[in-house]
Amino acid sequence: MKITHATSAPALYELDDDENSGETLVPIEKENSGMGARLGKVESTSCFSDLSFAVETPKEIVKPHTQYKKVLVTGGAGFIGSHVSQFLLERGDDVVVVDEMNDYYDVKIKESNLQLLQKVSGGKNGNVSIYRGDICDEEFMLNVFEAERPQWVCHMAARAGVRPSIEDPFVYIHSNIRGTTQLMELSHKFGVKNFVFASSSSVYGGSSSAYFSEEEAVDNPVSPYAASKKACELLSYTYHHLYKLNVTGLRFFTVYGPRGRPDMAPFKFIDRVSRGIELQKFGDGSSSRDYTYIDDIVDGVVRSLDRQHAYEVFNLGKGNGTSLNEFIGLVEKHTGKEAIIKQLPDQAGDVPYTCADVSKASSLLGYKARVSFEEGIRRTVEWYSNVNGSNPAIDVTVPKEKLVSDSICVVHSKEHLSTPVCA
User: Fold this and answer.
1) Phi, psi (5° rounding) for residue 289?
2) Whole-angstrom distance, CA of residue 299 vs CA of residue 49
3) Is residue 259 a part of any domain in this protein?
4) Residue 132 lies in a domain
5) Is residue 17 assigned to a domain?
6) Are strands 128-132 and 70-74 parallel, antiparallel or unpaired?
7) How many CB atoms are closer than 10 A to CB 366?
8) What is the CATH number of the domain that holds 376?
9) Domain that holds residue 373
10) Whole-prediction pTM value?
11) Is residue 172 annotated as a catalytic residue, yes or no?
12) Domain count, the chain
């Protein structure tokens, strides 16, 4: 089939004073090509909560797109991708999940996330289509774009982890750089309106700044993982320059929360302290991270997706750091147990301090983190406790019979079909 080329351009305008004053659910209609049917939808809104802070008037304000979307979410079975997909489905958008379901961590966790998305889509929400495959597979991804024709791309798939990237840099080059390039190539050929992708605070390397700003030169990555994310930012600008693809890169600052990755410190610390198992503490505990709760990250991702910026890079973080010693203390407080600590030296590739300057995201997206680190740890411990700690990453509330086992599964809202249709 001939690929249709289309040029997408940013929509610029001055926001009304009350643009973020509230969320209104307005019935909208979705075109269903080939069927002639019209499905009732809910207006997409761009944020979780009202703005309550003053922002400087930026030189360019992009009006949020508030209508129905079909969004391709890569890495949709993962931690951040599944939370973003859930939010989009709940507000009435359709989601196309692509995930290779690799074994970087327990695949059962990802299966559970897919089960949850199926459960959410089974109500009067958006529909979810699930494709299992590698984003670097050209034929596979072309088939996905041909079949689904997404107009919005939220690229969350990536090989993560600083330390593993030092041991095997080649898989990071493959998944992160080649995979992102493949998606941008298809996005410009299929006329995608907005391409949002996950970068990382790791690109700041060993910066000595008190707050990491997007204006900083980030030419000194200290791990292959960080270098791969920097490369994606450079390539994304090239695709914007050559093809006018609207692109937004998001530098995440240490994301945590319910359903979090088990290789990340917040999950590992809560799990090990809760079970009385020794945890490893690297360095003297003075190192600090800008830990950001998942709800705040999803808020920033959705705000970016809804705004068709020509090309931007944003920090998404809490805006203040927490030391490792304070972190462990809060886990002990909310689990009610004392940590058993094994002291180890600093790890190669780690940076001593991360803290996001989020003023740009505040001005152009209306973004502001709402959840303090202590409150986020309390919520995460509560989630952990609610699943009894026996297999904490699996959502036991999701019926096992809804497990996705086929390569493609499309789940329609109950108002249209009584059961999922899998092929």
Assistant:
1) -130, 150
2) 9
3) yes
4) no
5) no
6) unpaired
7) 23
8) 3.40.50.720
9) 47-69+151-392
10) 0.78
11) no
12) 1
